[in-house]
Amino acid sequence: MPSLVSVIIPTYNRAAVVTRAIKSVLAQEYEPLEIIVVDDASADETHQVVDGLRDARIRYIARSENKGAAAARNTGIQAAQGTFIAFLDSDDEYLPGKLGAQVRAFEALSAATGLVFVNYCEIGRNKSARFPPEIKSGYVHVGRHFPASIYCNPPSAWMVRKSCFDSAGLFDEGLWTLEDLDMFARLVRKVPAYFLADILLRKHVYTCQKGKVPDKYAEQTGERILQKWLPEMRRDRRFLFKFYTMMAKDMARAGKTQKACRFLRQAYFLNPLRFDMLGRMVKLIRRK
Locate the Glycosyltransferase 2-like domain: which residues (predicted)? Predict the structure, then answer.
């Protein structure tokens, strides 16, 4: 008998797009499946929209307090009955055959395999594949690289053997952003992960500003990631440089000039030839 797949869709104030996500799951040829929509205390018509789809495979769970995507996904994992867990952000959509391809990969690979993730394209930025053709299907070998530096990908692309969360742990609910980066790194460190080069997901970028994580969590998130992963990130200077520059942008957007300059300075020390880091610091200081 085919294995049950549980598709977890966390959502927050995305009544306008969540139907598209759910219908892309219902259109999959793979059976059996269950769809668990976890509403993270939305203030819009999400409940009515989901209820209006009237499909027995859909389970709706309403959280009483908004705690972020990590907490919503954990609620879904704990409620899931499937052997395999797939995720889908409420503004993304599966392409035909996505779930079936991942289950077939699990069946063909070693029983130790814990994660199968697919290639995808971004809608709203461009429609090119996220992973170029030179990255072929195969097991993930990161070497000294930080896992997310090579295989940065969204949870919507994943299918995870549910039992793997026992060893890797659940999503870190202290992270309001980058919780996927943290979870992916932990999974890859704990279980064999396999990449499918087929484009089987559309990731919509900036399609819905509702549900966007507030800037106030950026500093907390960045510091927590560094606390957890800095020793490993230091072995991958290119990734750490990108991380510091991303944090600098977040701090500047939040009006925290001093901390933005600190992250730019750390980025510059990693790559002294990037004189633009110094220029950005000067601009921030003058703006202040």
Answer: 6-165
